[in-house]
Amino acid sequence: YMELKEGSVTAGAPAASAMPKGAWMPRLSPWSDEDLKKERERAMAFPDPANYKGPRYTNASSLDEAWIKKLIAFQKDGGNLPKKDAYLLVLDTIARLRSETTLMDVVVKPGQTLTVFGDLHGQYFDVMNMLDMTGLPSETKPFLFNGDFVDRGSWSIEVITLLFAMKLKDPDRVYFNRGNHEMLEANIIYGFAGETGSKYDLELFNLFSEAFRNLPLLHLINKEILVVHAGLPGPRPRVWLPGQTHDPEDAVPVNVQPCLLDEIRTVDRYTELSPNSYKAAVDDSPRQEEKYETDTRMIIDFLWADPRGGAGYGPSYRKSRGVFMFGPDVTQQFAQANKLKMVIRSHEVKSQGWLQDHPSLMSVFSAPNYLDTGGNSGAFLQLTPGADGTLNIKPTTFTAVPHPDLPAMYHQQYITNKHPHLTRTMTKKQKDMGDEFG
Fold first, then answer.
1. pLDDT confidence of 18, banded at 50, 70, 90?
2. What is the pTM of this model?
3. What number is the average pLDDT over the span 56-63?
4. Residue 144 CB partners (closer than 8 Å, separation 6+)
């Protein structure tokens, strides 16, 4: 994506032979302030819908709890915001996210409880069920959504609209981390692009992609708990060992010097990962990295890595090259070096919705009965300061609730039928890699 920042509009595009003349392609160049201003002007010219009965969005100052509740109910009954309102909502969210940083610091005070949600994956009816249990975010109940808001489930627009509205109403009480499904490649393959196109248009999808590129990657809670979507920084030097297996005894040892939070704060998070990003994320022999390479490699870790039971680092099951799994000794070294009590991550289905993978690592996954076939529970974690001031972590597990009779990834047919050039070069991947995106 370094090339995209310099203005390229060809990097990562399918081969020309697979793309019909005039076919839609996702925007691959960044948005300037002037670009966003023109897009706002274009949105303001959209006609108002006739006979519309739902809530209207004009700006963040118009949002209150009653508006949020009205939106929840309206979407439950099958409604969506007008196109103009959806554009303005995403544009305002982009402006807010641009003011945030790669690693955000959050303070949970006595009397407050921070709720951490794992993967949601467009399961709107399960999100509503969680909010019935937690209540809406407030001064005493801040929320942190830990990535993978969209894709897979067939109500991703409803989920992300609600989340963005809550963020704009309470920007300092609602926090987001980017997940591997807040990425253009995943969204085109796993449903969100198609859903946006079928419910609005694909130019709005381009704006959603811009919002996702500006999402923070990590949150540090009370300087003692780090929350990240997937995993921890990988081995240094980052060398791929041919023939390394998934045997826990076949490991790359922990780093001599652990990565520190101060270095993570300097990561340029504004990026898209292409298939080539993973191949380029490892070397055949040790060498000095450029900063953009180090940043990209850490972003891959934050969005993709998984824990394992064995020591050190090993190859991931998710990609053929470039993604690592990390053992309990890696977590312990990282936590001790950064004075952390716990690392919280998501990214993986857990049968009870959460799991303490390592002594200093917990996973939380909030999409029960994932893909309508998983049979798993969902969970959320609540962080509350104890009498001694340190944070206590309380998991809550729940089961899936009924939803309208619509299969998972229903809207992917929009891309398959209307934009087959976007999927043609991915057919082999879908067959060979299956569930690599989590």
1. low
2. 0.93
3. 96
4. 106, 114, 115, 116, 117, 175, 176, 177, 219, 221, 227
